[in-house]
Amino acid sequence: MKKTNHKLKGLKIAIVVSNGFEEDEMTKPRAALEKAGAETVLISPDGSKVKSWLHDKWGKDFKVDMNIKSAKPGQFDGILLPGGVMNPDKLRTDKNVVKFISHFMKNNKPVAAICHGPWTLVETGKLKGRKLTSYHSIKTDLINAGAKWADKEVIVDKNLVTSRTPKDIPAFNKAVINLYLLLNKGERNHE
User: Fold this and answer.
1) Are 83 and 17 in contact (CB under 8 A)?
2) Closest Cα to residue 82, out of 15, 137, 177?
3) Predicted structure pTM score
């Protein structure tokens, strides 16, 4: 049984993925959130299971908790967007996913995105003037969307936390937990 510290008890976090998400960028932040007491819900437009990508090969299958078509963004306190090249490339073309993610950006709810994960945020039209980082190959797309990109381990810009690669996961997790700790001190935004 996992030991939790309950600092984030009562928070519900959406994790949105498609086949090909980077396994460590989902499992490690998810474990950190759950260890801190948050509830996580794996959401996908793909069937009842999604297959991860592990560095340079296919990884494990994960059970999907909820299909994006039935997910209501108002039920969640924040969102986590793991990377992997295939994952955000598919998610950014799904109108249900973009609408779901746009809710968090529009309502200043916590958004955590790592590696290629911020690529999906381009489709929300909400990156103008936002400071962020990502995997270097999507830098130009983010800048063209109006973001202020920097090559840093982790960047926190109000409700948005971003990191570059799996190597940044420890700093990413710390920043994400800190953002949720602030939320849990009275700034909740349920509808």
Assistant:
1) no
2) 15
3) 0.93
